[in-house]
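Q: Protein A?
A:
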Amino acid sequence: MVRAYVVFTGTGPILLVTKLDTGMQGEDATQHLANKGIKKFIAYEVSQEKAEEHYGMRFTAAVNRLASDKDLRVVDVDGHTVFARFSFAEMGEPVYVE
């Protein structure tokens, strides 16, 4: 199952896609982000349908680049764009990691 997340980092929000069963709280997700220098974040799940609607082929390409069920891919790093495309009402419950 593909999951999309708006992740608020120290430099602003990014949009990620993954197939991780554990979501953003699991060791795989936190380790993957830590390897990229992101050790503290707040993640909100957003619907795959909304992410596809907002990003189209860009979202599909990121999903297709997932190497395994333990992989994460960045769809968008432009915080302004990510923040503008999703309303708070579209975001799930926050996951805090530090």
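Q: Protein B?
A:
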Amino acid sequence: MSTSEMFGNIPPHNKDAERAVIGATLIDQEAAPTALEFLRAKDFYVKAHSIIFTAVEYLSNSGEVIDLITMTEELKRTGMLESCGGVSYIASLTSDVPTTANIAFYAKIVSGLSIRRQLLKISNELIAKAYDESEDTQELLADAEKKIFDITDASSTTGSYMAASEIVKDAVDMIEKLYHSGGDYSGVPSGFPELDNHTSGFQNSEFIIIGARPSVGKTAFALTMASNIAVRKNIPVGFFTLEMSGKSLMQRLFSAEARIDSKKLRSGMLKHSDFTKLTEAAGRLYEAPLYIEDTPNIKLLDLRAKARRMKKNEDIKIIFIDYIGLIESDQKGNIPRHEQVAEISRSLKALARELDIPIVCLSQVGRQSEGKEPTLADLRESGSIEQDADVVMFIHKKRDTEKDIAEENKAVIDTDIILAKQRNGPIGTVRLGFVPRYTKFESLTREPQ
């Protein structure tokens, strides 16, 4: 019994609409597909109706005709015929259907009332938890937000398909806009023409993975792109740094933006002229629409909540996450890490679609890739990252133990950015230059200063 029923309040429902929906599926073969666009068995308040609609789902998925005879046989097979009132009750449902043409209207009534019951259930649970002082406040908020958004996500998927005629005009308008803009990229530009020519920029709703071994330059690459986007293009950027603090991240940005040796910044051994460059760089970064979140080992729920807030309050156009291995799963108990990473990967892909922006996430690759070009099989902890990602790129510096010291002293280190997967574009390799002094990447066509 629900809390509402315990206190004498009957949860919202409409038995007549539920009967009409099921009755229509037994009369009209076109009714079931329409009902299934809006409803699942759990959406029915009356237990018997939920059981019968479970049979509707099964018969529809099996390609069977749905009528009184097939329904009766299916309920006999599952041993549920008597639990839902027997043949006489099922037959009576067809008499309550004024017209099957209104099936979508009846289904929306049932769906809407189901959402109200879910909201009541969540509210009661949250009230109980809010009185329990042992509950962590932030976890309580995150849990509330997740449950509400789960209902929103589930209800927004129904009836969402569009005819090609509805999409054609928007697609043509976009192509014309690109044509008249003189070749601007359709997505958020990384700031590296060599890369953007392959990707046309980072596309909305895409989940992008940047993989590399530790200390190869993942953070530097992500920061350089974030700076290019926010400082050069004035496009709002969200940056989740889970490994280093916001201050450390800003110190790197100062080094890259002011072109001051990062070692000098860390030691404070600066010349008078460096302060002029530092002040100018600080001014540019101060004005840039760059928003940094530096919660270490952030929980997936918190990350999603903060990302939604950034999108709503700052209208960010792209998110960078450094890195996926430091996100804590929401799963409870002793769950294998690869299953946790699979959940995180799926959730980030869903978040990119929900916010309709690209999400760029850094990931470590396995030790087996040491000394050779990494491949998709080298992504650590879960094959689901490869599956969920729309774009996977790897950073690869051809290193040799004898040349390591010399490489670090070079002004620019040639680095391959390997596009190993691109769902909607070509794969290939582009070459960029890594500047160790400033911990940043640059196009090789640009002369280092």
